[in-house]
User: What shape does this take?
Amino acid sequence: MAVRSSLTDSAPRTGKRLKAGTVKLIKQNIPLMIMFLPGLLFYVIFKYAPMGGIIIAFKDFNLRDGVFGSPWVGMDNFVQLFNQAQSLQIIRNSFIISILSLVVGFPMPILLAILLNEVRKMAFKRVVQTLVYLPHFLSWVIVGGIVLSLFALESGTVNRWLEGVLSEPYPFMYEKVSWLIIYLGSGIWKEMGFAAIIYLAALAGIDPHLYEAGSIDGANKWQQIRHITIPGIGTTIILLLILSVGKVMDVGFDQIYNLQNAVVSDIANVISLYIYQIGILRGQYSLTAAMGIFENLVGLVLVLSANYFARKFNQGLW
Amino acid sequence: MKPTTGEKLFYGMNYIVLLLLGLSCLLPLVHILALSMSDAHSILSGKVSLLPVGFTMESFQSLFQGTRMMDSFKNSVVITVVGTALAMIVTVLTAYPLARKYFIGRRFFLLAFLFTMMFGGGTIPSYLVMKSLGIINTYWALWLPALVNTYNLLILRTFFVGLPEEVEDAARIDGCGEWRLLGSIVLPLSLPVLATLTLFNAVGFWNSFLSVLIYINDTHLYNLTVLVQNMIQSQSVLQEVVASQMMQADDTAQITPEGIKAAGIITLMAPMVIVYPFVQKYFVQGALLGSVKG
Assistant: This one.
C-alpha cells in the first residue's frame, strides 16, 4: 500500500500498468470524495448558487414568479440606481468612509507592531498585547454601546467631564465631523491590536544582525526603523494592502449599523445599510441586488488591479 | 553598547505610548462594568468613573427579570455550540482531501473556493437561496451559510499539507484507510490549529448579528447580541423595564436606563472576557498560521 511511490512509478510506463494505476487512484479517491461532499455542497449552494441569483438584478423580481419566472428588464435597475440622488449619495458615502478607514486605519497596526517590537521588557509587552487584542473579540454591539455611553449627549461620560469646560454638552454623535472621527477611531480601537499580530510575526523574521550592523555604522533608532524594519516587513504590508483595497466599497454592516443615527444619515448611509433596509426590510430585491453586484464588481476589479500593479514590482499575491 | 540619550528618550516615549494604548482598551470596559453595578443616583449625577458607586446589582436583576435576557442567552449558547461543532466537522472534512496530492480535482476545487473570497452573489441573492430552502426563521439559516469559512479552510489545509509524510505513509502500509488516517493520525497532530479555528468559529457565532437580523423574524429566537442591540438603540425596551420595576418596588431611584444598558453590555461581553485569557495563545498562533497561507 505504498501509494505515493507506486503511483509515480507506474504513471509514465506501459498502458496496462497505467490503467491499473488509474483504478487504484479512483479507489483511493472514493473515501476522499465522500468526505468532500458536504463541503462541496456548501460551496455550490451557499456560494455559487447566490452568484447565479445575480440575474435578478436584471429582472423585475417578484416572489410569486421566482428567480426564473420574473420578467427581464435589462439594465433598468442599474439605470435607476445611477439616476437616484439617494443611491449616488450612498455610493459616495461608502467610498469616502472606507477610503478614510483605509488611509487612517491601515498604518496603525504597522506602527503598533513596530513599537511593540522595540519593547525589551517581555512582561510589559505581553500585558500590552493582551489588552490591545481584546477588543477584536467584542461584537460591534458592545463597542457601539460603549461608544454611546461615552459620547451620548445627555448621559455621556465625556460630556459629564466637559461640563465645567463647555457651557453646554457637545453633540459628538450628531455632528458629521465628530461622528466620522468617532467612527474611524472606534474601528482602529477594535482592530488595530489584532491586525498587528501578523506584522509582529514578520518583524520577528528580520535578521537581528542587520540591526547590529546598522548601529555599528552609526544608524540611530529612527534610521534603523526606516531602513531595516520597514523594508523587512514590506512584503507583508503590500500583501495586506492588496487585500484591503478590495474592500474599498465594503463598509461593514455591523460597525455602521451600531454607530449611525438619523441625524448623520447624510454621511452614514452606506451600501450595506441600504441593502438591508431597502432590500431585506422593504423587499426591493432587484434594485438592491443590483447595488450588491456593483459593490462586488468594484471590489473584484480593485483587487485584481492592485495585484496587477504589485506584480510589476514582483510583489503580487498571485 | 550603551544607549544614547536619543535612544533613551525613544524607549521612554515608547513605553508611555504603549501604556496609554493598553489602558485605552481596558478602561472603557472597566467604566461600563462600574456603571452596571452603581445605583441610579450615582450614575445620573456622573459620579461613576472606574469603580462602582453605591454598589448594587439591581440593574442586572431587573434586566434578567424584565426582559428576555435569559432566553436569548440560552439561544446564543445553542447557536454557538451547534454552529461551531457543525462548522468544525465540515471544515475538517473539506480541508483533508484538499491536502492530499492524489485527490482528483484538487487544484480546480481550491481555485473555485478561493474565487469565492473575491467575489460573491451578495446579501439579496443569498437571502433568496435561504428562502427557497425554507430555512428562514430557523437557526439553520445561521449555521449552514457559515459551515465553511474559506480563510479558515486554507489555514487548516496548509497545516495538513505541512504534516510529515512519513507518519502517514507508515500508517498506510499498516493498512490504515483515509478515515482512520484522518481520525487517529492527522487530527491528533493538529490539535493546536483545531483549537484556534474552534475559537474563531465560536466568536463568530456568539457575535452573529446581521445574519440574525436578516434570517430570524421571531423575537423569541433572538440571540443576546440582537437583544442587547435593541435595548441600546430603542428607549422603549428600557422604559418598559424601568416601568415594570417601578411598579413593584417602592424605592424608585435604584435603576436607570444607563445602568441597564451597561448591564446588558456586560452580560454580552462576559463570556468572551472570561474565556479570553485562556485561549489567547491559540488565536495568536492562528493569526500567524494565516500568514503562511499557500
